[in-house]
């Protein structure tokens, strides 16, 4: 199941924070950072020795980056790992907040944080897509932020799960809007991960092995 997928090479986590209005908190990385400067992201980072679980990683990083204490977040579930374009396997954790929390942005890491309606990540209006072999890179040119790659993929999956809706665009070559029309949202998520692990992961691993 996509909710219980555990992988030995998970080394990072991100936290998708959902409020009562079904919005997700998206950050923009500081422009001076060495990696991915100015890009949209979810709060998160690499696992450290003191993190007992990958959930602890997501909560710790969120506290460090946006000043949101773990006590304010109700962790709901975990989605299966997906890879960044840099080859890091990331575990998405989904948590909710009762009220829109007061944030304390760490400007060393984060420039701004914006609440984006989850539904925006299922709409054609803002969406673009590029196919790299078996891998679909999704992007959204939103009024607030440009979101693409790993962050966009995670937001799509969370939106499908939270809103129980289908995307208005093709998810991957085997999951077109025509095919998804007859699928329940739960099945779409399962099929996404089945395709991802069968096609995208082996392709990434073979490319990484070739570099060694």
From TrEMBL:
Any Pfam family: NUDIX
InterPro entries referenced in this protein's UniProt entry, alphabetically: CoAse (IPR045121), NUDIX_hydrolase-like_dom_sf (IPR015797), NUDIX_hydrolase_dom (IPR000086)
GO molecular function: coenzyme A diphosphatase activity; metal ion binding
CDD domains per UniProt: NUDIX_CoAse_Nudt7
Keywords recorded for this protein, A-Z: Hydrolase, Magnesium, Manganese, Metal-binding
GO biological process terms held by the UniProt record: coenzyme A catabolic process
Cofactor(s) for this UniProt protein: Mn(2+); Mg(2+)
Organism domain of life: Eukaryota
Gene3D superfamilies: Nucleoside Triphosphate Pyrophosphohydrolase
Residue span, Nudix hydrolase domain: 8-138
PANTHER family: NUDIX HYDROLASE, PEROXISOMAL COENZYME A DIPHOSPHATASE NUDT7
Protein name according to UniProt: Nudix hydrolase domain-containing protein
Organism: Pristionchus fissidentatus
